[in-house]
């Protein structure tokens, strides 16, 4: 069952949801930017420079989170995002590397 | 430029369009079914057993065709579909194998 933040467990990540999340240029950019970072890097949601309003940005991160692509954590006043690299590699081997 | 049937050339295939096409369980099934066949196999559009009307089926195949995932060819009265395996592997190495 997804946690209270809407993060699905590994075995709940569905390929159709992952593709729906990636079928948007801005969300795809976020995932590719995270993929270009070392594993485990946490980035602030504003650091991707998405040219959208705060509420639209929150929506995009929600889609990525609920699809299982990213994990969001609170660090003080900041909301940080990490790529669920190992989880995605376990569930759909090779998928992430095809994005880079 | 896409041909008259809407097939994009290899270098026109866009990842966002591929993901949008795969973000539907029936279209994903068609691609996975084709992927399970030997390379080059042509299948009739009705052979996938999609539980939808003829017009909806045509729509799904149009989305797959215009995204560059499949090629459709006429064989007499039949409309056949093949997976653009080599083109996709050239453009996005590893993507198809992550679906199987």
Describe the structure.
Chain A is an alpha+beta fold. Chain A has a single domain, classed as Winged helix-like DNA-binding domain superfamily/Winged helix DNA-binding domain (Arc Repressor Mutant, subunit A, Orthogonal Bundle), CATH 1.10.10.10. Helix content of chain A is 40%, strand content 14%. Chain A has 4 helices and 3 strands; from the N terminus they run H-H-E-H-E-E-H. The first copy, chain A, has a 3-stranded antiparallel sheet. In chain A, a hairpin with a 2-residue loop joins strand 2 and strand 3 (78-83). The interface between A and B is medium-sized, with 17 and 17 residues.
Overall pLDDT metric of chain A: 95
Largest sheet of chain A: 3 strands, antiparallel
Q: List the domain count of chain A as a whole number.
A: 1
CATH class of chain A: Mainly Alpha
Q: Tell me the series of helices and strands of chain A, N- to C-terminal.
A: HHEHEEH
Describe the secondary-structure layout:
The structure is a homodimer of 100-residue chains.
Chain A: H1 15-22, H2 25-35, E1 43-44, H3 54-67, E2 70-75, E3 78-83, H4 85-91
Helix pairs in contact in A: 1-3
Structure summary:
2 copies of one chain form a homodimer. Chain A has 100 residues and is an alpha+beta fold.
Keywords:
3 strands, three-stranded antiparallel beta sheet, globular, Arc Repressor Mutant, subunit A, homodimer, 100 residues, alpha+beta, 4 helices
């Amino acid at each position: 069952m997804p946690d209270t933040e809407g993060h699905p467990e590994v075995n709940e990540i569905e390929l159709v949801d992952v593709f729906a999340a990636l079928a948007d240029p801005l969300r795809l950019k976020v995932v590719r930017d995270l993929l270009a970072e070392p594993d485990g890097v946490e980035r602030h949601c504003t650091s991707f420079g998405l040219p959208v309003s705060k509420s639209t940005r929150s929506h995009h991160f929600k889609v990525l989170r609920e699809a299982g692509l990213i994990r969001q954590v609170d660090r003080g006043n900041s909301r940080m995002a990490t790529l669920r690299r190992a989880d995605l590699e376990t569930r759909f081997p090779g998928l992430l590397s095809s994005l880079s």
